[in-house]
Write a structure and sequence with these properties.
mainly alpha; 16 helices; 2 domains
Length: 408
């Protein structure tokens, strides 16, 4: 027969799973569950979290020790409003405002909330259209990409739940979208195929996953980082294979050198539009949208300034911009009393190497290995720079807090 401590531990695992699948970092999940367990009377808490598994061992003051394991089968998504609510729930639990027997009901209540479809639909449209122009497309390219984003949103809603995994979904989705876009550009030569593809493939390309994977490895969460890295590479491979199928089916010229260099004001505006789109897709609370969008604009401005200062060095420019994004996110988190991730992801989105990752895949399909090496290196340097900039700021902040606690 289950006792109340066993029920408490089950509730803590439900909380951990809810946080993980809504976009929380592994380290935050571990720290939150450990704090909550101690607040409910545990003497020692050992929490181990990776993207596919949660293991929690709880030792009570009377010496009773229990361990529960949870296999995570749900896909890891991003819902920042839910994450905020989980964060607030953890604070209330640690403050003693919520009895242990009510924890499972509170977690279930948060789990059952759903973002409004119109909001996520609008976010997909803005993100695809904005980034099509951001990466060098024309206004009409952005409009076409935004229209196709509606189809991607529909496929994600209808096809993704019945797909075997994200890899198979990416393959099918990119093949369908690639064929339809190729047909459109065949009839309308004014369109730039690669810019339109980049615009809405930003919705699928695992740029955030790739960057978070490198960051997890750098901060010591090696297993989670390597798992995310493998996932990101497999998803990218699915996209590349889908494009290859589309190219063979439509058999049209695939011109990758028709770039239009946008002006700095256009880059800043579209960076803000892209950040707004991802904020809506990730269900950022509307009261926090201005700060999230401003972060994307400022961060891209920092990247441009750093690129000028460092002579176009992608790694150093990414380090500078990611460091700014981390400082900005941590500052806004304290001002707005919200998780820093809510601000960090929309702020850093313009830095995500979606364009270079797309060209790496495209040139691999065309067997132009010199270009693959060039764009692949740029993608890697950018991801490493983002992770290094973030890790550097967080390491300094962590050391400063430890020193402060030591002196106290």
């Amino acid at each position: 027969m289950r006792n109340k401590n066993s029920d408490l531990l089950s509730g803590l695992l439900n909380m951990a799973e809810g946080m993980l699948v809504t976009g929380s970092e592994v380290s935050r999940v571990e720290d939150t569950i450990a704090r909550m367990g101690r607040a409910y009377g545990a003497k020692h808490m050992n929490v181990f979290v990776i993207t596919s598994c949660i293991i929690v061992t709880m030792e009570m003051a009377d010496g009773e020790e229990m361990t529960q394991t949870r296999r995570i089968n749900r896909p890891i998504g991003t819902d920042f409003e839910k994450l905020e609510r989980f964060n607030e729930l953890s604070r209330c639990c640690c403050a003693g405002e919520i009895p242990a027997e009510q924890l499972e009901d509170k977690v279930r209540e948060i789990e059952h909330t759903r973002p409004r479809r119109l909001i996520t639909w609008s976010g997909s449209l803005l993100a695809a259209g904005g980034f099509a122009v951001f990466f060098g497309g024309s206004l009409i390219d952005g409009i076409v990409a935004a229209l196709f984003a509606i189809l991607i949103w529909w496929l994600q809603e209808k096809l993704l739940p019945i797909s075997m995994n994200q890899l198979s979904f990416n393959l099918i989705c990119s093949a369908i979208i690639g064929i339809l876009t190729g047909i459109c550009t065949g009839f309308l030569p004014v369109l730039h195929l690669d810019k339109i593809l980049i615009g809405y493939i930003m919705l699928l390309i695992p740029g955030i996953t790739l960057t978070n994977a490198v960051r997890n490895v750098l901060v010591g969460n090696t297993i989670s980082g390597l798992m995310r890295l493998v996932e990101a590479l497999l998803w990218a491979a699915g996209l590349a294979l889908g494009f290859m199928i589309a190219m063979f089916v439509i058999d049209i010229p695939y011109d990758l050198v028709n770039a239009i260099s946008p002006t700095i004001p256009v880059q800043l505006i579209t960076a803000g539009i892209g950040s707004l789109g991802f904020s809506l897709m990730f269900n950022v609370r509307k009261q926090l949208l201005p700060e999230a969008v401003l972060g994307g604009i400022l961060d891209w401005g920092v990247y441009l300034l750093a690129s000028e200062f460092f002579g176009g060095n992608v790694f150093l420019s990414s380090v500078a911009a990611a460091a700014f994004a981390t400082i900005y996110a941590e500052t806004m988190a304290r001002i707005k009393k919200a998780p820093a991730t809510v601000f960090y992801i929309p702020t850093v989105v313009p830095l995500i190497p979606g364009g270079s990752l797309f060209y790496t895949m495209s040139y691999a399909v065309l067997s132009e290995w010199n270009m693959v090496q060039s764009y692949g290196a740029s993608t890697l340097y950018c991801a490493l720079g983002i992770a290094a900039g973030m890790s550097m700021v967080l390491s300094i902040a962590h050391t400063a807090r430890r020193i402060e606690l030591f002196h106290k």
